[in-house]
Amino acid sequence: xxxxxxxxxxxxxxxxxxxxxxxxxxxxxxxxxxxxxxxxxxxxxxxxxxxxxxxxxxxxxxxxxxxxxxxxxxxxxxxxxxxxxxxxxxxxxxxxxxxxxxxxxxxxxxxxxxxxxxxxxxxxxxxxxxxxxxxxxxxxxxxxxxxxxxxxxxxxxxxxxxxxxxxxxxxxxxxxxxxxxxxxxxxxxxxxxxxxxxxxxxxxxxxxxxxxxxxxxxxxxxxxxxx
Length: 227
Known about the structure:
It is a single chain. The protein has 227 residues and is an alpha/beta fold. It has a single domain (3-222), classed as 3-Layer(aba) Sandwich (Rossmann fold). Helix content is 45%, strand content 15%. The chain has a seven-stranded parallel sheet with strand order 3-2-1-4-5-6-7, with helices on both faces. Helix 1 crosses helix 7, helix 3 (59-73) runs parallel beside helix 4 and helix 4 (99-127) runs parallel beside helix 5 (148-167).
């Protein structure tokens, strides 16, 4: 693995993956909406990191981001879809979610990322190699009250990537449930959670990189993290 693209890099798991990979000598393009956090990551990650400020929910922006990525890296070995949204918080019953709110959750979690996948994975297929990872959740396989939009989006991705794996045998497609992490998103969803019981993004990032050494295409993984 020499080059990688990661979405949602400004904080949390995306940031941890970017730092882990650059520390391993991987050239990384990080995509996130403009923010002070994204600017800070540029300085922390060093010359191997290139930031692209773009909204993952916007398919047209993802097309432009793909073009900028190829200009920066030449080719892509790894694409990690980490950007995500819960939808309206505090979480609420699914019947209270409007069509517009549901569409926005799918835009961030499914349709926008798919626009980026089409360009990046298409080039991988032409090269005959590459890996695409979508960060999943246990909410994709369990019916938690008030998690409807997020659960539906993550479940959609799980199956979408199984289909992509079946259609594109030269490219590896996997989804990964990282477990409960100490992130801003988790705090927004479950503010009463004890952060001492949650995984640290840096731990999860290292475990993900290890998993990539042996992961098989078309598989949904529940990530194991060492203490």
